[in-house]
Structures are given as structure tokens and as C-alpha cells.
Amino acid sequence: MPDALPPDGLLADLSALLGPAGLLTDAADIAPALSDWRGLYQGRAMAVLRPASTDQVAACVKLCVAAGVPIVPQGGNTSMVGGATPSEDGRAVILSLARMNRIRALDPVDMTMTAEAGVVLKIAQDAAADCGCLFPLSLGAEGTATIGGVLSTNAGGNTTVRYGNARDLMLGLEVVLPDGQVWNGLRRLRKDNTGYALRHLFVGAEGTLGIVTAATLRMFARPRANEVLFCSVRDEDAALSVFRRFRETDETAIRAFEYMSGVGVDFAVKHIPGVTLPVAERADHYILVDLASTRADADLQGLAEQVLGAAMEEGEVIDAVVGGSEAKRTAIWRIREEHPEAQRKEGASVKNDVSVPVSKVPELIRRASAACVALIPGTRPVPFGHMGDGNIHMNLEQPVDMDPAAFLARSHDIMDTVNEVVRELDGSFSAEHGIGRLKTDMMESWRGGAELSTMQRIKSALDPAGLMNPGKVLP
């Protein structure tokens, strides 16, 4: 049960507005929405609101604001930083966008899709494919994450090196503002230079400035040729050198370029049924290269052989496997995608979603790994991720003989240790997961002064009562 009672009449008004399917108050019904994906937070809420239209969202906001009740927007609830979890005081309602799951329009000539916030990312990908196009945003949670959520966190994912983050794929938004007004900015224009670009305020704001209810998104031509490579490489510098070789040979062919440590791949092979090592011998460093072209006659295998041949001559690549079939390409990608689950099965881990300039990725991996091992001897670094755009998940697995709870109790020490290296390399402590509840205490030291005060003034101007996803992003 929540710690706070709802204001008189609020639940009755919401029930009349939303109907039986639109308001959940039973403890068992709302329980799945009260904790985050990683299990870091367990909140409380008066109710879960499930509006089915933008007008209903706006009406919910007006009722809650009038009653002084905080609102926590929620999409697929896949946040890695507690961004969609309510506080423990039970004063808030959760506003789920799950019922707003229509694709309103598809235009393969304009190459645009207009989708409601509750559309699951994989559904959006499939809808684009059905009309002969590509919606390229791809990440591990794409079967659960929603359009509203990925925009509210400015999600990145695997193909950022080619297509950019969620922000780069967005042309327009529909947003319910903190006073209940609806801003309809669903424009399909590539060029629209009329005043402030308001749409960009709400991307990455994690629901603290308003509730995204729909978006107009960019689509692209579908690739007609695809190849995936798995390579063992000499070290982190060799991995970066191979990326440079592909970029200099044919930058347009690179769809993803991922780094994996030997330890991380070991965990995937050990814990995930069906995952096997594609190359003959284990190594300490691996890369996954995903190549794609809209040209049916693109010789991607020839490109791979050309680049890898030169890299092998220089001793950068030790061994390599070319997918060659859809089944093998999927199996290679599975090694990378199963890293989080494999780490979970291995024990307790502390996750760091950081970014540095691409040229400094090798130094980040080496220095952060050494610093964390020095902090807690026996710690097992498991760095992996998007080397091509500078975003590495600098994760640390507990020592084999250490109590998991004791290791997790050192989480902030570990994050601070990683972040000291990141700061010295001109990086960011939050690359693609956002701030949520987990990292608000870091904002003052990283974004203090004019930058943070400007953010706070924007928040105060749009949400003077502080009811939109309180406790997230800003300290």
C-alpha cells in the first residue's frame, strides 16, 4: 500500500476519465511498475494510469497537477538508471503509455513514420520493414523498450556510428506539457528554422519537462547486403586501428563496430546456452564489425578480406570469422547482446555507461580497468560496447571470493574511480542510459555552473510545481 492517501476525489475522477482498463489501484496490478529493470529501486505509487489517447494524457495531467500529485511517465520500464521508478513515499502516480501503441502514419517517399509513445521499438522496426524501409535504432531491450522511452532517454544503441542516437532520428514530437497543454510538433520537415527547436528540449529530458505522446521519426533505405565479422585482436589499440582501416576504406559500409573483452566473451560462452566462440582460440580482446549497404552488388566480403588482410599483416588481427549466412551473423551478434545477462549470471556487477572521444577508448579501457582492480583486488573488468562512437560500458564484475552485497556496496566508489579516468579523458559519465535516479548526485560536479543552472531554470519555467518525474536528472 502507498504511504500517502490520494487527494479526495482524484481516483474517482481518473476512473471516470480512463475507464476500468485505464486505472490500476490493486497492489498486485501495480507491483510490476514499481521496480526498475536492474532491481536497484523499489518505489510506491497511488495508482497506475493507462490513458489511451493524447487527450486522456492531457486530462490526467491537469487532474494530477490540480491535486498536487507527482507524475512518473513510464514506457517499457527498461531504464538502467531508475528513470521510470517512483519514489518510496507513495505520493506519485505512474502514467503508463502502453495503451498508446498505434503507428499513425508511414510514408516511404518522405521516409517518415509517426508513432505513438507506447509503440515497442521492435514493432516500429517491423513496420518500417513492411513498407520497404529501415528504422535503424537497435538495442538490447528493443523487444520491450518503447518509442517514448528511447526518445526521453536519447537512447543510442548499436548503430549510432552510422545513424546517430534517437535524437538524430526524430523530426517532430507531440508532447503533453506540465500544465496539461498539448504541443503538436509532429512535423515531417528536414528543414524548419523557425525559432527555438523545442523538440530537442524533450529528447533526453527523461519525462521531467513533459510527456512525449507521439513522434515523427526518420526512416532509411533498407540494406540489400549485410555481413558481420568476429575478430580476435592483439589489444585495444589494434581494435581501434581496425576501425580506422574500415572507415578509411569505406566509411559508408560500417553499421556497427563493437569491442568485447576476453572475460566478457568467456562469461557469454559459459552462461548462455548456444553461445560458442567463433574463432579457433581464446583471446583477451575481440571486435564485432557489422557491414551493410543499400547496393545489392556491394562486395562486403571483399571489403572485409581487404581490410582484415592488411590488419593481419600488421599483427593487429589474430583471427577472424566472416558470418556468411543470416544464422551465423545472428549467432555472432548474440555473443555481444548476451553480455548483460551473462554478467548477471556470473555474479554482482557494477555498470558504468561512459563515453570518451573515439581516439581515447583504448586508454579508457586500460586505465579504468587498472584503477578498479587497484581499488578492489580481484575485481574483473568487463568492458564492452560501441567503440565506433566512443561509448564503452565499463562494467566491473565482483571478485570470485567476494560477497555480492559487499561488492555492490562499493558501487559508488567504483563509479567514482571510473569517472575520474573519464573526466581526465574529456568524456561523459552518462553516454546513452541517462541520469535517472542513479546519477543525480554527479550532476553538480560534472555540469555545475551555467550549464546546470540553465537546466534548472528551464525546469522551473515549464514545471514550476516540480511534479513531472521528480527526483530524476537534476540534483
Automatic annotation (TrEMBL):
Entry superkingdom: Bacteria
Cofactor names: FAD
SUPFAM superfamilies registered for this protein in UniProt: FAD-binding/transporter-associated domain-like, FAD-linked oxidases, C-terminal domain
Domain named FAD-binding PCMH-type: residues: 41-222
GO biological process: respiratory electron transport chain
Native source organism of the sequence: Neoroseomonas lacus
Keyword Flavoprotein recorded: yes
Organism lineage string: Bacteria, Pseudomonadati, Pseudomonadota, Alphaproteobacteria, Acetobacterales
Alphabetically ordered keywords of this record: FAD, Flavoprotein
GO MF term list: catalytic activity; FAD binding
Family recorded in the similarity comment: Belongs to the FAD-binding oxidoreductase/transferase type 4 family.
Protein name listed in UniProt: D-2-hydroxyacid dehydrogenase
Pfam families: FAD-oxidase_C (PF02913), FAD_binding_4 (PF01565)
